Amino acid sequence: MVTSPSTVLRTAGSFPTWWAILLIIVGFFALALPFEAGVAIAIAVAILVIIAGVVHLAGTFAARSTGGFFWRLLVGCAYLIAGVYLLMHPKLSLVSLTLALAVLFFVEAIFHIVTYFQLRSAPGSGWLLFDGLVTLILAVMIWKSWPASAVWALGTIVGINLLMSGFTRLMYSRALRAS
Is the Cβ–Cβ distance between 123 and 176 less than 8 Å? Predict the structure, then answer.
C-alpha cells in the first residue's frame, strides 16, 4: 500500500506542540550556556554507558550457562570502566563526543535532505530541506574546528540543532493545520 506524502506529513505533524516548544527552550539554554551544556551531555553519555555496563553484566549472569561467560563479563566490565572514566573526566570526553556529533549531524542532514526530495510536493516539506541544510552546515562547522573548539562547540551546536528541530516541528504543525 502506497502512502501519500500528505498522509505521512500529517502523521508526523501530529507531534505534540509542547514537545516542539520544549526543544526550543532547551535549545536556548544550551546556546546561553554552551560549556555547561557540553559537560551535561558528556555526563549523560557517561551515565548511559554505565547503565549499559550494568545491564550487560546482569545479562551475563542471567545467561551464565550459555557459554562465553568470561568474555561477556569482560565486556560488561569494560563498559563500566569506560563509563566511570567518562563520568570522572567529562571535559576530556567532550573532544570525542564533538567528533561523534559531527558524524551524527552529517547523517541526519543527509536523511532530512533525502526525505525532502521524497515528500517535496507536500505542504511544509520545505522545512525538511531547510533543517537538513542547516544541520549539514553544523556538521561541517564541527568537523573543521575539531578538536580546538570542542569545549564550546558541543553545547552550541546541540543548542542550534534543538532550536531548528523545535521550530521545524512547530512549523510542520502549523502548515498542516492550515492545509
Answer: yes
Phi, psi at 68, each rounded to 5°: 70, 20
Instruction: Collapse the DSSP code of 56 into the 3-class scheme (helix H, G, I; strand E, B; otherwise coil) and give the result.
Output: helix
User: What b/e sequence results for 79-99 when a residue is b if at least 16 CB atoms lie within 10 Å of its CB, and e otherwise?
Assistant: bbebbeebbeebeebbbebbb
Burial of 44 (0-12, 13-18, 19+ CB in 10 A): exposed
pLDDT in tens, 92-136: 898 888 888 889 989 999 999 999 999 888 888 898 899 999 999
- Break the chain into its structural domains and give their ranges: 23-178
φ, ψ dihedrals at 33, nearest 5°? -130, 70
> What is d(CA 70, CA 160) in angstroms, rounded to the nearest whole number?
44
Report if pTM > 0.85. no
Cβ(161)–Cβ(138) below 8 Å: yes
Q: Which three cell numbers stand for residue 147?
A: 578538536
